[in-house]
Specification:
Blueprint (H helix, E strand, L loop, with lengths): L6 H20 L4 H20 L1 H5 L2 H5 L4 E10 L5 E12 L5 E7 L5 H18 L4 E7 L8 H15 L8 E4 L6 H15 L19 H19 L8 E4 L4 H12 L3 E7 L2 E4 L6 H13 L5 H7 L2 E4 L10 E3 L9 H9 L4 E3 L8 H9 L3 E3 L1 H4 L2 H15 L5 H23 L9 H20 L3
Parallel strand pairs: 3-4, 3-5, 6-7, 6-10, 10-11, 11-12
Antiparallel strand pairs: 1-2, 2-4, 7-8, 8-9
Bound molecules: NADPH dihydro-nicotinamide-adenine-dinucleotide phosphate.
Length: 458
């Protein structure tokens, strides 16, 4: 039986439908961007309708239009002397509350739509951190897999030849993302420095010897687990003893698993684009050290874990069929489908925290919310990475380095404050359940929208 809607709910639905129709028309074929905006608009529309000043100022229309998008060609030479051509973008989405800030992604699936969804989400995530950072995102359809370090270096240097004129420590500060880790940031920063003849913190995620911050590498994964701990503490519980299913084996997944182990949880899966490992005994610190060496040094496949430790390998599969208390999607967008949400809920999963950006498709999110489990959306749960990037910028500007304890303490404080903002805006009046999607979207919206209103029509 379909749910009956009140007249107010119907009005919100109609407004969302009209808005989304216009957005789809203005941005055809950008399905990832449509998805991110729809999830956002669904939750903020009731508030917008109650506050006519936002509608009069066309805030939602303006917020969903990037300030600018820079598209450029990147040519480079491979090790065999062949000339290769890739396309790159920088989406400068919104700088209402600070310079553009967001990562660069190198992956063959990168399109303008993917970068627009990521840049859009970044605006509100950055607002939640409480630091003065606007939203941006960039990257290229360059595939780093199977390339030599020299090829990666030549690509990064060529990319920076164009990118450097659009970024700066007070303008736009890129960082890493999928396919862009410490090695790539170092190549790009080296080239930036050479082109500009200035040593400033225009990129974050730098090496510790040249302006990087302690805890930046770990920040996104650690922050996701800190946020989860905040949700559980709010209910008088903790992650200790919880069986956790994690996807991915890159930066975010690795450090989410590390923090889960440190807090006494039992992570049992990791994955890559080839498949998932399922270690019923739990991934320990020693086993994780193997994963780090495998992924960060040898750049091998997660299937080697199963061979080494004699556990199950689920070829070509995501880990969502594995019974768990908590799930941490930490690989990529739309990796957790509607049917996966069914499987997780059926198996008793009570917590989902998004380490990756938009890993759950919209139907899956709706199912988690309908089941009233603890669902932490990416904007809130993975904001620890950009937060520590913001702290790296502060340290660069002050020309000092904080200790590991100082940075970790600040990260803790920021994740706690994001949780409090979500509770403030997402608390449910009747039964105490917190809608973290609504909470995160609303808290981010209010901050960015009010800054936009203050500037007038710009
Ligand atoms: P990495 O490149 O370090 O790792 C990505 C992981 O996801 C790898 O295990 C990779 O497997 C897997 N993966 C990537 N694409 C796919 C795909 N299409 N299908 C299946 N598996 C895939 O990236 P990060 O860990 O940095 O980023 C992971 C997610 O977290 C992304 O959504 C990113 O936007 C988000 N994020 C990252 C932040 C950071 O600080 N790094 C900050 C905030 C969010 P394989 O190697 O086989 O491709």
């Amino acid at each position: 039986m379909s749910k009956q809607h009140t007249p107010e709910e119907k009005m919100v639905r109609d407004e969302v439908a009209t808005f989304m129709k216009g957005l789809r028309k203005r941005n055809p074929h950008e399905k990832e961007f449509h998805q991110a905006v729809e999830e956002f608009v669904e939750t903020v529309m009731p508030y917008v309708l109650e506050h006519p000043e936002y509608k009069e100022a066309q805030i939602l229309e303006r917020m969903t239009e990037p300030d600018r998008i820079i598209i450029f060609r990147v040519c480079w030479e491979d090790d065999s002397g062949n000339i290769r051509t890739n396309r790159a973008w920088r989406v400068q989405f919104n700088n209402s509350i600070g310079p553009y800030k967001g990562g660069l992604r190198f992956h063959p699936t990168v399109t303008q739509s993917v970068l627009k969804f990521l840049g859009f989400e970044q605006c509100f995530k950055n607002a939640l951190t409480g630091l003065p950072m606007g939203g941006g995102k960039g990257g290229s359809n360059f595939n780093p897999k199977g390339k030599s370090s020299r090829e990666i270096m030549r690509f990064c240097q060529s990319m920076m030849i164009e990118l450097h004129r659009h970024i700066g420590e007070d303008t736009d500060i890129p960082a890493g993302d999928i396919g862009v880790g410490g090695r790539e940031i170092s190549y790009m920063f080296g080239q930036y420095k050479r082109l500009e003849n200035r040593f400033v913190g225009t990129l974050t995620g730098k090496g510790l010897a040249f302006g990087g911050s302690l805890v930046r590498t770990e920040a996104t994964g650690y922050g996701t687990v800190y946020f989860t701990e905040n949700m559980l503490n709010h209910l008088g519980d903790s992650v200790e003893g919880k069986t956790c299913v994690v996807s991915g084996s890159g930066n975010v997944a690795t450090y989410a698993v590390e923090k889960l182990i440190q807090l006494g949880a039992k992570p049992v899966t990791m994955s890559d684009s080839g498949g998932s490992i399922y270690d019923k005994d739990g991934i320990t610190a020693d086993k994780l050290a193997f994963v780090k060496e495998l992924k960060e040094v040898r750049r091998g496949r997660i299937s080697e874990y199963a061979e080494k430790f004699g556990c199950e390998y689920m070829e070509g599969k995501t880990p969502w069929s594995v019974p768990c208390d908590a799930a941490f999607p930490c690989a990529t967008q739309n990796e957790l489908l509607s049917a996966d949400a069914d499987a997780l809920l059926k198996n008793g999963c009570k917590i989902v925290a998004e380490g990756a950006n938009m890993p759950s498709e919209l139907d899956a999110v709706r199912k988690f919310l309908a089941a009233k489990i603890l669902f932490a959306p990416a904007k809130a749960a993975n904001a620890g990475g950009v937060a520590v990037s913001g702290l790296e910028q502060s340290q660069n500007a002050l020309r000092i380095s904080w200790t590991r304890e100082e940075v970790d303490q600040r990260l803790h404080g920021i994740m706690k404050s994001i949780h409090e903002q979500c509770v403030k805006y997402g608390g449910h009046a009747n039964d105490g359940w917190i809608n973290y999607v609504k909470g995160a979207n609303m808290a981010g919206f209010v901050k960015v929208a009010n800054a936009m209103l203050a500037y007038g029509v710009v």
